[in-house]
Amino acid sequence: MSAQISSRVNFLPSDRFEFSKTGKFLNWALTTGRYLVVMTELVVILAFLSRFWFDRALTDLRELRFQKEVTVDGFKDFEKKFLFTQSRLKFVRQTVDSSLHADRELAIINELSPKGVNYNQVQIEQDRTALSGFATSALDFSFLLSGLESQEIFSEISVKLLKLSLTRKPGFDFEIEALKEQ
User: Fold this and answer.
1) What distances in angstroms separate CA 158 from CA 25, 49, 77, 152, one per listed residue?
2) Relative to the CA of 163, which of 64, 68, 127, 144 has its CA 20 to 30 Å away?
3) Residue 110, beta-bridge partner list
4) Is the peptide bond before 114 cis (omega within 30 degrees of 0)?
């Protein structure tokens, strides 16, 4: 009888290699490590594919920013005109606020003036008001003078000139200066 030859080859050592530290590591690397490699590849593929989505989002964002820049640039001329108009309005407001309020004084003078009084010149300044004109009678002139004296805005009233008119008769030429309250 002939002896039978066994054709089985065992590559694993016979000393229980799988329970050693190296064996346990190899067993883990061949099972769990394989899953880790597959998961890492999936993450890399997802990152690569998401790049296209992020590129599109970035392009959309740049286009939106460009549109807004165009809109803002379109309003630059309007903004310049608006700021220029605001500065002019500020100047006008300051001028009106610091003005002499001559309209109020003219209304008072007009209200106090009898029908027989005509003015040649009315000067309204910060600290004084000067009136020069013609009164048809002494009564009209006295009404004007007493009316001016009754006003609180005038502190001192002086008659600079009062004479019979040589150009218009009958009547008086006059000049009155009224100092204002400070």
Assistant:
1) 119, 97, 56, 15
2) 127
3) none
4) no
Q: Is the dihedral of CA 98, 99, 100, 106 positive or negative?
A: negative
**Residue 182 to residue 180: CA distance in whole angstroms:** 6
For residue 58, how many C-alpha atoms fall within 13 Å in the half-sphere facing its CB? Answer: 6
- For 64, phi and psi rounded to 5 degrees? -65, -45
* 130 contact partners, CB below 8 Å, separation of at least 6: 121, 122, 123, 175, 176, 177, 178
173 in Cβ contact with 165 (< 8 Å):
yes
Closest CA to 138 of 178, 103, 172: 172
What residue has token string 């009084």?
Answer: 117
State the residue for tokens 């609180």. Answer: 152
- Name the pLDDT band for 170 (thresholds 50, 70, 90): confident
pLDDT in tens, 103-162: 888 888 899 999 989 999 999 888 889 999 999 988 999 999 999 999 888 889 999 998
Alpha helices for the chain (secondary structure H): 21-74, 76-97, 102-112, 138-150
What percentage of the chain reaches a pLDDT higher than 90? 45
CA angle 15-35-18, nearest 5°? Answer: 5
